User: Fold these one by one.
Assistant:
Number 1:
Amino acid sequence: MYHVVLLAIALVMLIALLAAATIGKLARLEGATYPAALTRAAAAFIAVLTLATTTAAALADIFPPV
């Protein structure tokens, strides 16, 4: 059971890193400075983690652990 949890955490972290990298690259292509692109990438990373945490909390309320 714990392997599934660890796999889910790793998957969420990978998706968050990919989203941050994509947003940072798009910001640079728009002409943003490196600090501005890094700020946007960090915001995207935190947004993905927040969404995953909120979703997990909502699902934990619906499906309590056995």
Number 2:
Amino acid sequence: MAEKAKGKMAQAKGKAKEAAGKVTGNERMEAEGKMDQVEGKVRETAGKAEEQARGVADSARSRRKKP
């Protein structure tokens, strides 16, 4: 869950940075904002995959315990 939330935060930060870069004409800041958004999307996706893997592992464990 934490990784997913961190990803969302990075995406929001990136959008703000990109917008600020556009407004000020700062191409570097705009590019950094886009990269922050990509990083955030990767972290969010990794968090989702981690949650799915944990769910599969929990499911497998609960099946083994049943007689």
Number 3:
Amino acid sequence: MPHPSALLRTGAAVAVVLGTLTWPLAGAPTTAPAAFAAPSLSRTSPPSPPSPSPPSPPSPPSPSGSPDVRSMTPAVAAGLDAAVRKVMREADVPGVTVGVWTPGQPDYVRSFGVANKATGQPMSPGLYMRIGSETKMFTVTAVLQLVDQGKVGLDDPIGTYLDGVPNGNRITVRDLAGMRSGLFNYSEDEAFFKALTSDPQRPFTPQQLLAYSFKHPVMFQPGQKFSYSNTNLILLGLLVEKESGQRLGTYLARHVLAPAGMKQTLFPTGNEFPTPHAQGYTDQTANGKVAETADWNPSWGWAAGAMISTLDDLHTWAPTAATGIFPDGSTMVAPATQKQRLTTPPTGITGAGYGLGIFDVQGWIGHNGSLPGYEALTVYLPSTRTTVVVLLNTDISYHGNIEPSTLFGRAITRTVSPAHVFDLPVPASATR
């Protein structure tokens, strides 16, 4: 949710979209509804009326099939093409890849536009992409596996495991995973913003990131409300390392990615980026001008937003994360623990709840992600086992406050699942 999405630009409405790893542009803090404070870097504020969005083309007639998802007829596919192209044109998106899969229906996998504006390289489904705050789903999965192993307690104070956390004797592991800790979001700190934008290739350690947060007072007592904060995930990443005895990337590779068969997903240690990949474009820069970001170092997002993946791997991940079951039928997260994960209290946005590192928006379970130059949306509709994945190579907001991934999610689901339209409106007060 992060505007949960843009790791830096406060994720607007959950961040905003819950998945955002956002930082406030020019150091100006962004606010978001109490429930989805910037997925990435936003804070909580009272819900506001939805922001304007580009008009969508009329939905094609509903063919026979599921009442929740339209059959993928040629007419529906053509409607998707038109909806995606319209968002691209309105929001000035260079390139996007979209996948829609429902068992028993034809797959919809299409790429539009360019992966690199300078070379004209076309966007294509096989490109590696940075996925921002979708990383949170993987980090919390690791935590939940340690819960199943008896090494971590969801209702234990984080101070039981890690020293030096403000209010650490009261903030629980559950509060951190559910974005209800009250800890200040480090990516909203002005000094952090200046440090990052002055040298986007510089590495950050988890301890450095926490220092930006911990110099601020706690914003509220744990559990009082929802406030999207990347700080929570940095602590959970350190928790995984301490209790597993492994580096976070190593743990994820061995216990989550390999069992899921996700061979094209990785947790980078620096600015490495497998090829082929798309160039990213952002205006989250020191001077506000658009810059290319493929070689930026995502270490500042670490456990909250550093991961890289592909369309095919995220197609695998959506149902895996939503069910807690690996593709081979083995258990990733125990059913009782998964049930707690999918308990999604209100966030302040109508129809949107946030559980343990995962959201439910109008029935769609998953997460969004955004960090400078890239955005992603990976969601799953259990009633029809439908997966939607959207990957794009810009995080530049539409009208200054709407995540482009949200625009695509809204347009796609209006076409394929009109009874379940993915939407994370941004509060009128949200700024960049």
